[in-house]
From TrEMBL:
Gene3D superfamilies: Cytidine Deaminase, domain 2. It is an enzyme of class 3 (hydrolase). This enzyme scavenges exogenous and endogenous cytidine and 2'-deoxycytidine for UMP synthesis. Substrate binds at residues 52-58. This is Cytidine deaminase. Its cofactor is Zn(2+). One of its GO terms (biological process) is pyrimidine-containing compound metabolic process.
Length: 142
C-alpha cells in the first residue's frame, strides 16, 4: 500500500493533535470512562473540535467524531482536510463503524484520519482504508 500523502502541514498536524487531545479532556463519559477527543481541519483552515458525550440511555450517546463533524457542518463547513482522534489507550483507537460511515458522508476515500494513543503517538489511515468499499452521497442516484 502506498504511503498516505498528507494534505496537512507539520504545523497543522501539531494543532490538530493538540486540539484533539485537549478535547478528550472535555469528554462527558461517566459510564464508560472512555475519553475521546476529535479535531477536524476544514478546507478553509479552521479547526473544529468534539468530544464524546454519553447518556444514561447508552445508545443515545454521541461519539467525538460525530460531534465535531456535526458542529462543523452547522457552522457552514463542507470541505475537510483531515481528522485527528485521541484516546487514552494503547494502541490508538480508530473511529467506530458508525463514525466511519458518518465521516465518509462528508469526505472522500483518501481523507486522512490521524489516531492518537495515550502517549501522543499516532497512526494515520485513510477513511477508505478504515471503511473499504464504502459509498457516499456521490454514489446515490441523483
Amino acid at each position: 500500500m502506498p504511503p498516505i500523502t498528507s494534505p496537512v502541514t507539520a504545523q497543522e498536524l501539531e494543532i490538530l493533535s493538540t486540539k484533539a487531545i485537549e478535547a478528550k479532556g472535555r469528554a462527558y463519559c461517566p459510564y464508560s470512562k472512555f475519553h475521546v477527543g476529535a479535531c477536524i481541519l476544514t478546507a478553509s483552515g479552521e479547526f473544529v473540535v468534539g468530544a464524546n458525550v454519553e447518556n444514561a440511555a447508552y445508545p443515545v450517546g454521541t461519539c467525538a467524531e460525530r460531534v465535531a463533524f456535526g458542529t462543523a457542518i452547522v457552522a457552514g463547513h463542507k470541505e475537510f482536510k483531515a481528522l485527528a482522534v485521541a484516546t487514552d489507550i494503547r494502541p490508538a483507537a480508530s473511529p467506530c463503524g458508525m463514525c466511519r460511515q458518518f465521516i465518509r458522508e462528508f469526505t472522500t476515500p483518501s481523507f486522512p484520519v490521524y489516531m492518537y494513543d495515550a502517549d501522543g503517538a499516532y497512526k494515520v489511515m485513510t477513511i477508505g482504508e478504515l471503511l473499504p468499499d464504502s459509498f457516499g452521497p456521490e454514489d446515490l442516484p441523483k
